[in-house]
## 1
Amino acid sequence: GNGHVDKRGALIVLEGLDRCGKTTQCSRLVSFLEGKGLPVEAWRFPDRSTNIGKIISSYLTDNSQLDDQTVHLLFSANRWEKRWLMENKLRNGTTLVVDRYSYSGVSFSAAKGLDIEWCKAPEQGLIAPDIVVYLDIFPEEAAKRGGYGIERYEQLEFQGKVAHCYKILCNSSWKVLF
Ligand code: 2DT
């Protein structure tokens, strides 16, 4: 009673290239867990609803110029500003299914040529996921899926570089789905 729960929620992160099907799989997973009667919420990064998220969104959608390091830190700050809420939700037993997290942050920035260790640094201290699911898809395959939109990064050559960076980050604890 009194809102006390013994069981922490799980932090489940889905990662992958643009158009790999993350968003669809996230909502299917959320529905599945809801069906089991578990408290669960769908989250995504970037969270475009915050002030930082709005700067990120305009960077992604128009041609606002920001240097790569600054953008990297904004994406990271967008996770930091949600950290405390995330921690509270998990503590209170809510499972979070998150569409993109630090691995997107590191892979997309490293794909631009930033040093990968530098990219990882601001992610230190964020809540570590319990499960990382990587939806593996060839960039060529992803590009065929209805074509890319107009956002920055949605280009075949760049997505290939991102895929390469994900492979560097991937370890044996990840669940890789084809
Ligand atoms: P969506 O299309 O999923 O909204 O992502 N990105 C995302 C980064 O470069 N760094 C990050 O930390 C995150 C979370 C991936 C928008 C784009 O933003 C990229 C695609």
Note: Residues 11-177 form a domain with the Rossmann fold fold (CATH 3.40.50.300).
## 2
Amino acid sequence: MLNNILIVEDDTFQQKLISKMLSTLTLAKITTASNGQEALSKLDKIAEPELILCDLNMPGMDGVEFLRIIASRNLDSTIVLTSSVSNDVISSVKKMVLACGMPDILSLNKPISKIQLEQVLLQSTEQVRRNKVTEKVLFQPVDDEIITGFDQEQFVVFYQPHINVKTDIVSGAEALIRWQHPKRGVLTPYFFLDQIQQLGLSHQLTLKVINASISACARWHQQGKGFNISVNISPVDLIELDFIDNVIELLKQYQLPAKFLTFEITESDIGPDMAKELEVMCRLRLHGINLSIDDFGTGFSSLSQLISSPFTELKVDQSFVQKMLTDSKSYAAVKASLQLARDLKLKTVVEGVETKAEADAIKALGCDLFQGWLYAPALPENEFLSWSQNHNKKYIDEITKQG
Ligand code: C2E
Ligand code: MG
Ligand code: MG
């Protein structure tokens, strides 16, 4: 996914080490510079790098000045500070960069490990996807474009790994819809989901996603990977005639046991009076399909509603996770949600885990599954499989070493 990477680092040993590790992880072209001045002149000659790794202390033009200058160039690159200076200096540089109008930047402490670089590559790849998207802030597809997209199978399912918190191995994935737009690249649901609903194509989309997800999960099972698959649905899908029959038929057709399928329903979509939906939910449970309450904490479902609904899983919303280490109220929300889920004997998933510090804090609170960019973004099926294989291999190697 990445084509160009720039390393700005005065220490030749570090420069070579980072280049070498990166070259085992990506096919991107790697350019190096020993200070800000050299980096600026190389930037004029090469295609815009998607990733820039930048040291701070360098002779000549240092990293701070370099960043201030490139802030004015409106680059879309993911910037990663690679420095051994103290955290308060790093956070001041980050503030300066934000004040210059650049997006938030990442930082890695030296010595940099291959695992850290792998994470940065994944985050940068996601950034590339998102940049393709933000180019389109003003992009509003016309209805015909969406209808053509449907006819031409441009709506595809990506998979974001779920990681077992205790074992650190991949246990499954959440299916997330993407629009592979012929001109605008990969678009996330933000750009089309509401319009699809207005066009009355929601149910058609849901069935498409369920079909693709069940068939993918069945393929993984045939390869010996007992993954689960989670699919987002809205309460209106539930009351569509034949919804359950269609799902059961698909499970039968692809020979996937129902217990490997979870439907996620967003809490804020759950209304106060859901008798019909509840009936369908109960029947889904009777067939062995799991039900997850998504974005927990963003809606207003009452405790009694939660207790009386047949949910098997609770997903803590990412908005709390992303603030939990800086805002005590968000931390309390994550902690209380996890405690409530445990008391109700629900499986717990925390989504939107972006940093190791967040993962450690959540692990300490107790949780079953992680989902987030710290591990991987939503990926096309083949990339999801190779990512999972690599990730699980690391775990097996670790166990073998210990054994
Ligand atoms: P969701 O079900 O809560 O899915 C999680 C969202 O968080 C996804 O956004 C995912 O890409 C994003 N995410 C995952 N990890 C991180 C992270 O570490 N940091 C941040 N900032 N974000 C992270 P996405 O794919 O844009 O989907 C947005 C929403 O659209 C989903 O929220 C879901 O409600 C809806 N959606 C996605 N696919 C489908 C679908 O097939 N059918 C329906 N009905 N809704 C869908
Ligand atoms: Mg979801
Ligand atoms: Mg969610």
Note: The pocket of magnesium ion (ligand 3) is lined by residues 294-295, 315, 351 (CB under 6 Å).
